[in-house]
Design a protein that fits this description.
Oligomer: single chain
Strand content: 15-25%
Number of strands: 5
Distance between the termini: 46 Å
Helix content: 10-25%
Largest sheet: 5 strands, mixed
Number of domains: 2
Shape: elongated
Number of helices: 4
Length: 155
Amino acid sequence: MECAVIDALANCSATELSNIVAGHASGKHGWATLDELAYFAAAPVDIRAEMRPALLIRPRAQYRSDMTEPQLREITRKRWRVKSREYKYIFCVHDAIIRGVWAVTNEDRTWLEAEGRLGFHLELAEESIVDRFYGCSVAHLLPPKGAQAPVTLLL
């Protein structure tokens, strides 16, 4: 309760209030945007077989909640350490929530090979696909907590 009052006062006024001790997992609680709260309410979704092979890419440090679609596409398409395959879709994932969905373009399937990494030419997926997957949880498809690899391959 104390945390909620401090957050409300700090975010609704010029007051510089804070707890002396932050507490356990304090960075995961407190004032948040509706987009950030989506993590708690997101419905799990499965990536259907006809959409695979696909990649779930977690750009972590580059991600910001206020990014536009072109900015998300740019941080998602850059070079990743994955094998060259006929990928159909690439999903940008942050906090286990899908933030963007792109189709790997067929007309220009040029792999940008550099230092054993691949980049992708992407176009926004069909509206029905974006509507189906955007904001949904893929936590059940990701590796266990603590895994360092930012890319998950779905075959």
